[in-house]
Design a protein that fits this description.
PAS, elongated, five-stranded antiparallel sheet, Beta-Lactamase, alpha+beta, Putative diguanylate cyclase, 7 helices
């Protein structure tokens, strides 16, 4: 690593390359050679942006020779922009790359390894899918409400529990509220508000839901405000709906 300042670039978790106003390499850190082993021999003070663009192609692209010049020009053009972001692959790594023009006309290029982030997202999606599958198998309704767009998604189990057929993918919230006993709507709203104000992880309450052929049925609705706006208002609320008839409190469905 070379550096023109007293700051240790190796203290940074991302790869760093700094070019002077003439687009010649001034400094870089060891992360660059770890992320792009192929370019290590060419990382020298004074190496030009154009020459290193060729090496980045060798490091991360399997491309037809006829398209190599076009890709080289694109890499250089992106680096020269006032601000540019892209995602690259290098071996098994997935890297988030940022190029930024500096006040003196030079270029700072930052390379962040996001491979583990992708894996975490895949694991999260798999966990979500497993949860939905489990919920379906034990007859638990799932709902997900995007507040600002008034977009409610529900699974097929929830629709079956309330005796409805699927006619669309997204519903307005009133689709569900209209099925709730009028006396229980206030209770539900109060539970949601309390969960946000008191920072409770989950809200829940027993409500009566009208089934078209079975009449009023007691159900337990649980939910969590998972996203807030800047104004601290609920933006996304997710939860479950479970059939508890007869009610846990021993009440009749018509009470």
């Amino acid at each position: 690593m070379q550096s023109t300042s007293h700051f240790d670039l190796n203290a940074l978790p991302m790869g760093v390359m700094i070019y002077d106003p003439a687009e010649c390499l001034l400094a870089w850190n060891d992360q660059m050679t770890r992320f792009y082993p192929v370019i290590a021999p060419w990382l020298t003070v004074g190496a030009t942006l154009e020459s290193l663009a060729e090496k980045f192609i060798d490091a991360g692209y399997n491309i037809d020779p006829g398209r190599r010049q076009t890709l080289r020009e694109a890499i250089i053009r992106n680096c020269r922009q006032a601000s540019h972001r892209e995602v690259r692959h290098s071996g098994k790594r997935r890297l988030y790359v940022q190029h930024q023009r500096l006040a003196d006309g030079g270029i700072a290029s930052l390379h962040t390894d996001i491979t583990e982030l992708d894996e975490a997202q895949r694991s999260r999606h798999q966990l979500h899918d497993d949860f939905l599958l489990t919920a379906e198998s034990i007859q638990i309704g799932i709902w997900d409400w995007q507040v600002s767009h008034d977009s409610l998604q529900v699974n097929d189990t929830l629709l079956a529990m309330v005796g409805q057929s699927r006619v669309q993918l997204h519903y307005p919230l009133r689709f569900l509220l209209n099925l709730v006993h009028e006396a229980d709507r206030t209770t539900l709203r109060q539970a949601m508000i309390a969960s946000k104000q008191d920072h409770m992880p989950v809200f829940e309450c027993e409500i009566r839901v009208q089934h078209p052929t079975q009449g009023w049925r007691w159900m337990l609705i649980s939910g969590q405000v998972v996203t807030l706006t800047i104004q601290q208002q609920a933006e996304r609320v997710i939860g479950t709906l479970q059939d508890i008839y007869p009610p846990q409190g021993g009440r009749a469905a018509g009470d």
